[in-house]
């Protein structure tokens, strides 16, 4: 039997080796981050349970953002949709402040079941509690607290799944796995909306049904995918000052990682502007109530599955096949920008559908290939993968925190009464995602 076909084999940490020449422009000098270790290929069990686990997290975590939170805000504060921006922004701000600490803690955890699995288990418990809190919240303040818990709990699960890919994936499998997980994470909220569309009138089921799916699929990964005992790894003492310094790094030392961070920041800023008010945007353009949008979004999302599949799987697999990352990231950003502009000027359902499908294709391609690119340029993989994945998290959590607050202000520009300026919001979002793709072109160590 091939050793890579057994998931219970101990994983031997290899000696780091230089980047393969096929993936690096010979005319440039590779920056001084960890050279990509010559890791053994992971088997099908690891890949498919990873895909299922991330699908489960996004179904549990993002379905509330797609529809459930909008429904609850509309119930608790009718006509005050800007409160949704404040709620999502507060949750993202909390995660932004805690993510590097959680990553450093994960790196230094020494248990029989490894470094990453304890955080997946704990995160699930917090995540389920958060769903109950949001479902039963009697006011907007408690609803916001529940979302903070959701960001912390499910975000911890997701970050440790992604750190696991940094621990385990060789370069030749990164695009493939990123494509599969990118596809899974994009379609998961669609399935979540479809699954819960009949429960809009029952807040508890609206939140808990996707959560149960998340718990089951993450538990399968935790129970069936082996992770080495980490008790034998070197230990070091970390002071409070040392921990705070882990939140920072020298961008000049890792320029390609920094450029990837900036490109991701711009992309997720634009994406968050585009998606935070999706339910209210559709209701406004189609002249229906917010409670009626769930069915429309579910139908549109079901069609969009094919677009996301094409973008994520096509981009991920082809980036491995041709050993090129940047062209697919830029193409993904350009597609998203084009789709957002079309949606901004749309006044009927066919145009909204066309714009949404283009955006879905771009999201799938950008997010999948950029995840593979991140693993290519991630510094200090063998010792501080969790720390740098946590720092990478700033590139998504800062936009998730700031963008909804800014979006709430953008919606009020140049309008009167109850009108909202969704066109301006979508134009700005398009410019940001396009800029995010263009920044990636400046990365030198990866093609």
TrEMBL record:
Region feature Disordered, mapped onto this chain: 1-20
A Pfam family of this chain: MFS_1
Topological relation to the membrane, as annotated: Multi-pass membrane protein
Keywords: Membrane, Transmembrane, Transmembrane helix
Domain (Major facilitator superfamily (MFS) profile): residue spans on this chain: 49-447
CC annotations in GO: plasma membrane
Gene3D superfamilies linked: MFS general substrate transporter like domains
Organism superkingdom: Bacteria
Compartment(s) where it occurs, according to its Swiss-Prot or TrEMBL record: Cell membrane
Transmembrane segments: 46-71, 83-106, 118-137, 143-165, 177-197, 203-225, 265-287, 293-315, 327-345, 351-369, 390-416, 422-441
Bias (Acidic residues) ranges: 1-10
GO molecular function, one term: transmembrane transporter activity
Main location: membrane
Identification of the protein by name: MFS transporter
């Amino acid at each position: 039997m091939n050793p890579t076909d057994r998931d219970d084999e101990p994983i031997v940490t290899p000696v780091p080796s230089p980047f393969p020449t096929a993936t690096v422009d010979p005319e440039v000098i590779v920056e001084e981050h960890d050279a990509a270790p010559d890791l053994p290929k992971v088997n099908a069990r690891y890949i498919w349970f990873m895909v299922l686990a991330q699908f489960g997290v996004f179904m549990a975590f993002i379905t509330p953002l797609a529809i459930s939170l909008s429904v609850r805000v509309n119930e608790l504060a009718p006509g005050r949709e800007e409160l949704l921006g404040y709620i999502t922004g507060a949750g993202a701000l909390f995660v932004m402040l805690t993510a590097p600490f959680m990553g450093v803690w994960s790196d230094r955890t020494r248990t029989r079941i490894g470094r990453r699995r304890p955080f997946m288990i704990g995160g699930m418990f917090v995540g389920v509690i958060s769903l109950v809190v949001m479902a039963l919240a009697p006011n907007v303040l408690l609803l916001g607290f529940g979302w903070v818990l959701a960001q912390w709990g499910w975000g911890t699960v997701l970050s440790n799944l992604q750190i696991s890919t940094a621990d385990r994936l060789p370069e030749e499998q990164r695009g493939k796995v990123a494509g599969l997980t990118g596809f899974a994470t994009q379609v998961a909220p669609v399935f979540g909306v479809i699954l819960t569309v009949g429960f809009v009138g029952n807040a508890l089921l609206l939140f808990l049904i996707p959560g149960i799916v998340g718990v089951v699929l993450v538990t399968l990964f935790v129970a069936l995918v082996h992770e080495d005992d980490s008790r034998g790894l070197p230990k070091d003492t970390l002071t409070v000052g040392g921990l705070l310094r882990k939140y920072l790094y020298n961008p000049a030392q890792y320029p390609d990682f920094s450029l990837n961070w900036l490109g991701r920041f711009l992309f997720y800023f634009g994406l968050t502007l585009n998606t935070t008010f999706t339910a209210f945007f559709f209701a406004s353009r189609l002249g229906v109530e917010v409670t009626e949008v769930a069915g429309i979004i579910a139908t549109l999302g079901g069609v969009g599955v094919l677009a996301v599949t094409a973008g994520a799987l096509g981009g991920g697999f082809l980036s491995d096949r041709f050993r090129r990352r940047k062209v697919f990231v830029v193409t993904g950003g350009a597609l998203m920008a084009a789709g957002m502009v079309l949606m901004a000027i749309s006044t009927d359902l066919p145009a909204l559908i066309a714009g949404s499908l283009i955006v879905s294709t771009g999201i799938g391609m950008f997010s999948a290939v950029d995840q593979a690119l991140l693993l290519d340029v991630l510094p200090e993989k063998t010792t501080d993968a969790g720390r740098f994945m946590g720092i990478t998290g700033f590139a998504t959590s800062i936009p998730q925190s700031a963008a909804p607050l800014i979006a709430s202000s953008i919606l009020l520009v140049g309008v009167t009464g109850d009108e909202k300026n969704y066109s301006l919001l979508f134009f700005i979002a398009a410019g940001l995602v396009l800029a995010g793709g263009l920044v990636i072109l400046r990365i030198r160590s990866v093609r």
